[in-house]
Amino acid sequence: MKAGLGLALGASLVMGAACGMDPALAQGAKATSPPEFARRIEQLKPGEWVWAPDVAPEGPVLVYVDLSRQVALVYRNGVRIAATTVSSGKDGYATPTGVFTILQKDADHRSSTYNNAPMPFQQRLTWDGVALHAGGLPGYPESHGCVHLPYQFARELFAVTKLGVTVVVEGDAASHVRTSDNSLLSPFNDKGQKTGHVPLAGGQQYRWQPELARSGPLSIIVSRLDGRVVVLRGGTEIGRSVVEVDAADHGSHVITMVMRGGQPHWVYVGLPGHTSEDGVEVDEAALNRLRLPRGFYDKLKTALTPGATILVTDSRVGDAPLEHLTVIDAVKPAP
């Protein structure tokens, strides 16, 4: 396959003083990174963030704030598309945990409690003042209860959310946790309920449950590391299978199904750093690097429609490390 998927890794000048904080300069540099950022979130420095919206261009949005790691994660259609460092409430002003919905959006909001302090790209979670917004990011909790985001990240998030989007806040800011399995799959659905991403049982080749979500955009994650394929529709997992990937290239790729000449074709998505790939058709040799159980492939093929997206990655999708099954009666996908 071609060069790996590029994502924007950024740091921004944090605009100030929301929830009573002074402006601060977030440290970090612009770079590119594949979706494997999912395994390295704990290495993000204050003010750094990753934004990859084309990994899942459609579907329900969920925001997950992990107070223990001081990070926020954004999922669309059940797939992680973004991660950022945050600063939550300091001692005496702890950010409340729970399942919230976005009650109000105001790009130019100012605090009525803290001296008219600016709260850029404010997304209100409670009517008593807790919100997501751009603010100071010193590398530890220091707000008066709000969740501070890098300025540019707050702008990007503001653009993809709407009123009623679910925000889950968990963890304990006083107990910092540095490591996680960092699955690309959302731990919650768009209602804030725990999701049931269940590994395949011993000897099980695949699972197919389309009745769990009858409609919605289709996202397919191919994890080389786990040797698994996970199929999500409308943010709900409807299928999971073993897979063998024969590829020397360990880069990450996003491809999508389009109609050309009345026929479906898989084409690359051109993301930042790889815009020359945009619209280039995936050749048969690349497709032949995947081997799937025949029964799973036949079922998946009937569910594919234009707009379906495939992410090929080394990140995990929730199976235990080193858990591999041989693919029997396999078939290679056809173009």
Concise structural overview:
By secondary structure, the protein is mainly beta.
Order of helices and strands: EEEEEEEEEEEEEHEEEEEEEEHEHEE
Q: Could you estimate the helical fraction of the residues in percent?
A: under 10%
Rg for CA atoms: 20 Å
Shape by Cα distribution: elongated
Helical/strand content category? mainly beta
- Outline the biggest β-sheet: 8 strands, mixed
What are the salient characteristics of this protein?
335 residues, mainly beta, 8-stranded mixed sheet, 7-stranded mixed sheet, 3 helices, 7% helix, disordered N terminus
Task: Characterize the structure shown.
By secondary structure, the chain is mainly beta. 7% of the residues lie in helices and 33% in strands. It is built from three helices and 24 strands. It has an eight-stranded mixed β-sheet with strand order 4-1-5-8-7-6-14-9, covered by helices on one side. A hairpin with a 6-residue loop joins strand 11 and strand 12 (131-134). The longest helix is centred in the middle third of the chain and has 10 residues, at 151-160. The radius of gyration is 20 Å and the shape is elongated. The model is unreliable at 1-34 (pLDDT under 50).
Q: Strands, helices and their partners?
A:
Elements: E1 8-11, E2 13-14, E3 24-25, E4 31-32, E5 48-51, E6 61-66, E7 71-76, E8 79-85, E9 98-101, E10 104-110, E11 118-124, E12 131-134, E13 147-149, H1 151-160, E14 166-170, E15 206-208, E16 218-223, E17 228-233, E18 236-242, E19 244-245, E20 253-260, E21 263-268, H2 284-287, E22 290-293, H3 294-303, E23 309-313, E24 330-331
Parallel strand pairs: 6-14, 12-13, 16-23
Antiparallel strand pairs: 1-4, 1-5, 2-3, 5-8, 6-7, 7-8, 9-14, 10-11, 11-12, 15-18, 16-17, 17-18, 19-22, 20-21, 20-23, 22-24
